[in-house]
Write a structure and sequence with these properties.
This protein is α/β, with parallel strands linked by helices. It binds ligand TLP.
C-alpha cells in the first residue's frame, strides 16, 4: 500500500528536460562576461567549450542550442549527401529528430536492432556492407547512450570500444548521442571519458538531468568541431552573447553530475513499486538510470486515458502509445513524490479492478 498525501502542485515526470536552472545558475547567468560568440569572442562560451572538451577527453567543444542540432551538425560534419549512417532502429536521431538526417544532411539510415536499444557489436559488423556499386556508401555509426526508447539503458565501455573498433577497421566514423552520457557513467560507476573516448564525436545535453535551461555540447577533434561550427552557423544556430547560456552550462557540469545517482535510486524505487501493482507491466531490467517505461494494457486502459487519470491527480507522464507510459526522474522529484505517484497509480488500478 502506498499512501497518497495532499499534493498542491503537479509532479512532472514527463522528462528531465523540464528541470529549471538552480539559483547558482541564475546568478552566474547575470554576472557572466560576454562577447560575440559568432566571432569566437564570448569568454564564457569559450570556457564552457574547453571545460566540456576536457571533461569528455576531446580536443575541442561546440555549444549548440539543442541536442537535436548537436546530432545534426555532427552528421553533417562526418558525411556527404547519399552516405549511409548505421544506427539503432529506435534511436532518438531517427525517431524524434523530424527526419533531419535525411531532410537536411541527405543521408540514409541503416537500422540495427539493439537489445533494449543496446547494440551488439557483431550485428553492427554485419550491417556494414562492402563496396557494391548498388549500395549507399556507409560512412558513420551512431550509438545512443543512455538509450531513450530502450528505457534509459546503458551501453558499457567495452561494447562502445568494440563497436568503434569495428567501425574504424572499415573506415567509418563514429558518433555518440550521449544526451544523457553522465547518467550512463553514473550507472556504471566509471569516468565519463571511458564511454566517450572511443568515439570520433559526442553530443551531450546540459538541459536534461543537468538542469541547465538551454544547450548541448558537441565534442571531438578540433578539425571536426570547426566543420560542425560552420554547419551550426548554416542552420542558424550561431548565437551572439551566448555566455548567458554557457554560464549555466558551466555550473551544470560543476554541480549537477554528482546528484544524478539520486535520480537513479528514485527511478528504481518507482519501477519496483509500479511492478508490484497488479495490471502494470514494467521491464525492470531496463530501469538502469532515470527512466521507467511501463505498460498499462493490463488495466484495460490505453496510454491517453491512463495519463488523463494521472493528471486528475496532479501527476504528469509521457505517452508511449498505444499502452505504454514513460516516467523520468530528475532534480525536482523527491522520494516522497515517488511514494505519492505510486499511491496514485495504485488507486487508479484498484478503481479499474472494481466491477464497472
Ligand atoms: N529527448 C527528449 C525529447 O524526446 C522530448 C526527452 O524528453 O527524452 N538524444 C536523446 C537521446 C534525447 O533523449 C533527446 C531529447 C535528444 C537527443 C534531443 O535533445 P533536444 O531536446 O535538446 O533537441
Amino acid at each position: 500500500m502506498f499512501a497518497i498525501g495532499k499534493m498542491k502542485t503537479f509532479i512532472d515526470l514527463r522528462s528531465d528536460t523540464i528541470t529549471k536552472p538552480s539559483d547558482e545558475m541564475l546568478q552566474a547567468m547575470v554576472s557572466a562576461p560576454l562577447g560575440d560568440d559568432c566571432s569566437g569572442e564570448d569568454p564564457t562560451v569559450n570556457r564552457l567549450e574547453a571545460l566540456a572538451a576536457s571533461r569528455l577527453g576531446k580536443e575541442a567543444g561546440l555549444l549548440v542550442p539543442s541536442g537535436t542540432m548537436g546530432n545534426l551538425v555532427s552528421v553533417l560534419a562526418h558525411t556527404q549527401r547519399g552516405d549511409e549512417v548505421i544506427m539503432e532502429s529506435e534511436c532518438h536521431m531517427y525517431y524524434y529528430e523530424v527526419g533531419n538526417i535525411s531532410a537536411v544532411a541527405g543521408v540514409i539510415p541503416r537500422f540495427v536492432k539493439g537489445h533494449h536499444g543496446v547494440l551488439i557489436p557483431d550485428d553492427v559488423k554485419k550491417a556494414i556492407r562492402g563496396g557494391n556499386i548498388h549500395y549507399a556508401p556507409p560512412k558513420l555509426v551512431a550509438v545512443e547512450n543512455t538509450h531513450n526508447r530502450g528505457g534509459g539503458t546503458v551501453t558499457s565501455s567495452k561494447v562502445s570500444c568494440d563497436i568503434c573498433d569495428i567501425a574504424k577497421d572499415r573506415g567509418l566514423f563514429t558518433h555518440l548521442d550521449g544526451a544523457r552520457i553522465f547518467n550512463a557513467a553514473t550507472a556504471l560507476g566509471v569516468d565519463v571519458r571511458e564511454l566517450t573516448q572511443p568515439f570520433d564525436s559526442v553530443m551531450f545535453c546540459l538541459s536534461k538531468g543537468l538542469s541547465a535551461p538551454v544547450g548541448s555540447i558537441v565534442v571531438g577533434q578540433r578539425d571536426f568541431v570547426e566543420r560542425a561550427r560552420k554547419y551550426r552557423k548554416m542552420l542558424g544556430g550561431g548565437m551572439r552573447q551566448a555566455g548567458v547560456i554557457a554560464a549555466a552550462g558551466i555550473i551544470a557540469l560543476e554541480t549537477m553530475v554528482e546528484r544524478l545517482e539520486e535520480d537513479h535510486i528514485n527511478a528504481r524505487y518507482l519501477g519496483e513499486g509500479l511492478a508490484s501493482i497488479p495490471g502494470i507491466q514494467v521491464a525492470l531490467e531496463t530501469v538502469q538510470t532515470n527512466m521507467v517505461y511501463f505498460d498499462v494494457e493490463g488495466l484495460g486502459l490505453d496510454s491517453v486515458s491512463f495519463i488523463q487519470e494521472l493528471e486528475k491527480r496532479l501527476v504528469k507522464a509521457s505517452l508511449r502509445p498505444p499502452t505504454g507510459v514513460r516516467m523520468v526522474t530528475h532534480r525536482h522529484i523527491s522520494r516522497e513524490n515517488i511514494s505519492y505517484v505510486l499511491g496514485v497509480v495504485e488507486e487508479i488500478a484498484k478503481f479499474r479492478s472494481m466491477p464497472q
